[in-house]
Amino acid sequence: MKNITAFLAVADTKSFTKASEYIHLTQPAVTKRIANLESQFKTKLFERIGHRVVLTEAGQAFLPRARTIYTEWQNGLHQIANFSQTVCGTLTIGCNNHIATHQLPGLIKNYKNKFPEVDYNFIFRTSSEIIDLIINHNIDIGFISLPRETPNDIIVKKFCKNDMRVVLSPTHPFFRQKGTEITRLSQIPLIAPEKVNIYYDILNDIRHEYGIESKIISNINMLETIKKMVEAEIGWSIFPKHLIDQNLREISFVKKRFYADLVCIYHKKRELSKPAKEMVNCISAVFKI
């Protein structure tokens, strides 16, 4: 299983260096495990193209079978571990940066008080990347801002809802200018995340709802970074109502409410470990759902 774990890590990250970081091994150890597999199969599984590592035709053929073997092995381990009364082991959590900053610390504190013997492995990525990690069985559970569409193999558990408001810096010239608010706002850049992000969809809804024609500055995926750019008068964006402080000012003409669901996700076909099951239960208790 160690060789297959290394194979999947390299296949998913397309890098021996990133794979070694992901599975907490040295790069030579990862290289050796891949070499062991290639020796066993008597064929190359990867080839280097520039700075990237890509699967050979044989590697591509083996990939789905390797995922099945890994998933069944993990399911077996979790199933046997569930016979124990003790909640222990490692819980691998994927989380976007916004939830990691605002919701995750309190949740982990509550969970750790109940289950002190559990260890944690945190992976911080964008919501779309975390979905991929779940699909590929790389993590136990994920915390994301729910996109409009999700794969059928994912179970979604909503635990919080962000009321998103349109904001600008309170010192922005917008508030001193004359003319209609929509016309004035259309002259200011819109700061947005990547297109697969729910916040991009909400911003698009707002633009179409009110006929706002702002130039878009996109691919800024951290809400906290967007906030700093708004504070610096670079443009306007959206931000959760409960986190708006004196450095942001809501634009009042946008009356319609727009919401982003924060959710826990896990794979429908993955046998959850005992720590993962208890984390799902803890979410329900902490957020009263």
Helix content: 40-55%
Q: What's the gyration radius in Å? A: 23 Å
Figure out the total of helices. Answer: 11
Structural class: alpha/beta
Query: Low-confidence runs (pLDDT<50, min 5 residues)?
Result: none
Mean pLDDT, nearest integer?
91
Key features of this structure:
alpha/beta, 11 helices, 44% helix
Write a structural description.
- This protein is an alpha/beta fold and 289 residues long.
- The protein contains eleven helices and eleven strands.
- The chain has helices spanning 2-13, 16-22, 27-41, 57-81, 97-102, 104-114, 127-135, 181-186, 198-210, 223-231, 274-286; strands at residues 46-49, 52-55, 89-95, 118-124, 141-145, 154-168, 190-191, 216-217, 237-240, 249-250, 258-267.
- Strand 7, helix 9 and strand 8 (216-217) form a beta-alpha-beta unit.
- The radius of gyration is 23 Å and the shape is globular.
Entry summary:
The chain is built from eleven helices and eleven strands. It has helices at residues 2-13, 16-22, 27-41, 57-81, 97-102, 104-114, 127-135, 181-186, 198-210, 223-231, 274-286, and strands at 46-49, 52-55, 89-95, 118-124, 141-145, 154-168, 190-191, 216-217, 237-240, 249-250, 258-267.
List the helices and strands and how they pair.
Blueprint: H1 2-13, H2 16-22, H3 27-41, E1 46-49, E2 52-55, H4 57-81, E3 89-95, H5 97-102, H6 104-114, E4 118-124, H7 127-135, E5 141-145, E6 154-168, H8 181-186, E7 190-191, H9 198-210, E8 216-217, H10 223-231, E9 237-240, E10 249-250, E11 258-267, H11 274-286
Helix pairs in contact: 1-2, 1-3, 1-4, 2-3
